[in-house]
Design brief:
With 483 residues, the protein is mainly alpha-helical. Helices cover 64% and strands 1% of the residues. The protein is built from 23 helices and two strands. A two-stranded antiparallel ribbon has the order 1-2. The radius of gyration is 22 Å and the shape is globular. The protein starts with a helix and ends with a helix. The relative contact order is 0.10.
Length: 483
Amino acid sequence: MQHAAIQRILGLLLMIFSLTQLPPMLVSLFYEDGNLMPFASAFLFTLLIGALLWFPVRRIRKEMRLRDGFIVVAMFWLVLGLSGSLPLMLSESPRLSVTDAVFEAMSGLTTTGATVITGLDELPRSILYYRQQLQWLGGMGIIVLAVAVLPMLGIGGMQLYRAETPGPMKDNKLTPRITETAKALWYIYLGLTAACALAYWAAGMSLFDAIGHSFSTVAIGGFSTHDLSMGHFNSPLIEYIAVVFMLLAGINFALHFLAWRSMSLAPYFNDEECRTYFKILLLTALVTIVYLYFMHTFGDFSEAFQRGLFQVVSIGTTTGFTTAEYHTWPGFLPVLLLLVSFIGGCAGSTGGGMKVIRALLLFKQGYREVVRLIHPSAMLPVKLGGKPLGERVIESVWGFFSLYVASFGIMALILTASGLDYVTAFSAVAACINNLGPGLGEVAAHYGDINDLAKWVLCFAMLLGRLEIFTMLVLLTPAFWRN
């Protein structure tokens, strides 16, 4: 294990991350909200820590192995959550404890969108901007950005890319060089963010709100600058714009790249995961809208359609925006929406959940086992897009699913033991491990009222979800640390 190389990379990444404190400093100066010092202090502290880590090993030029990549990714997200919480700890508004500040920062960076803060409309603009920026940076992954930057500093990035990028097909690259791949992903990410911001602005949002909500929409984060989230604007046009960009952000970014390069929509239609993604959301939306209409939850069909569609796409893609209190909807709908979030977005997107491709492969494998009962000797390969998959991929998906369920169950039990009721514990873990945000019960509106132990467990759940389970849990195995 290359300890000096790992230390050097962490130092560099922290120094780079310290620069992200500069935009909220400028926002604080522009709006004169009196919140400059927390960001200035966080900038200097993070820069200093990064420099102290980097300077003693600055001349180390050893190539990292895959094992080192896992350590860097996991440690950096942990350190990032702690350093990202500094402005929230130091700010007078809101006044957050260490636990709450780390929870809020971790929620932002992992694009979970669970918040402990109330009274958003009265917060300083710099804090509001900072929360949105955390989600935008976490959306594509700080590590992917570092993959595009660090090679220029003499550090290879393939190991980090393989450890960070989600999905069972993650070894596929868009371009021959990993640096160019990371840049291509970020160009698409920037383009979608800019288009979303312009659309929101044209639809009636202020420029500040448009930029902030574009950050959290494309990142599939869910943080808002208002307590009522998207419901604050009370605009069908804004909601439909959000639906479009949430859907786009939930698609594998490799497909966006291929569609842009070929100037064709064919890559979307030809991809089985993408087709399944839209089928799941369409079916869930139809059930939700029809049920809301016949239960007379809203005044007419048009409102039921608008609210139902928005909430299905928001929860199904694990964004977490709200325009209505969906946890009060009748019958099975709240549980249905929460269960859909377990599937989440496509692999290679900014969405959370287990990913559509895994759900699809689990279904195909289950169906194959049923057919095998009828034809025990038949050769029945699992196919994706017409191509058979190796058994190693299927085993990986089942391994992921088993660890996902086991981790979920253990954390839900811990939350229940800490004093939370079953509905709150179940939904809180589901919302955090799926990087969704809003849950049911006591965490339907915010997470500020639950105990500190539950918040730390949920921080771990956010990291598990963001880093796809294996990246975190592999560090807990004795085999990983053996030479």
